[in-house]
Amino acid sequence: QVQLVESGGGLVQAGGSLRLSCAASGSFVRINNMAWYRQPPGKQRELVAVVTSVGSTNYADSVKDRFIISRDSAKNTVYLQMNGLKPSDTADYYCNAYAVGRFGPQRQYWGQGTQVTVSS
After folding, report:
1. Phi, psi values for residue 81, rounded to 5°
2. Distances in whole angstroms, Cα of residue 45 to Cα of each of 10, 80, 91, 113
């Protein structure tokens, strides 16, 4: 099993920056894709950014050029640097990862989430 623990959420003013971290721990052979999702109040969960095991990235149009996803494979950690934050970025942010065990198939794991609130 894999545990994902997010940190770095909080309250920030519009235009500010925040850095989220998600550390994976547990029993696994490797972690493939890692991603950040978010769920704004009253809305559905949406994909924010993805980073593959080789460093390729993809971003939602709403955050492209403002957010940067990165990973430290040695530490099994994924980051989300959020710049130029807007009130519309307010949401619960969730870490997501695909991990492969020694014998088992790839499985998807989720963190418990961290709140990001952007004030005007």
Report:
1. -85, 120
2. 19, 17, 9, 12
Instruction: Return all residues near 89 (Cβ < 8 A) that are at least 6 apart.
Output: 38, 63, 82, 116, 118
Cα 97 versus chain centre, distance:
9
**pLDDT tens string 61-84:** 999 999 999 999 899 999 999 999
Residues 98-107 as b/e (b if ≥16 CB within 10 A, e otherwise) read bbeeeeeeee
Alpha-carbon distance of 113 to 49, in angstroms, equals 15
Tell me the C-alpha distance between 72 and 60, whole Å. Answer: 21
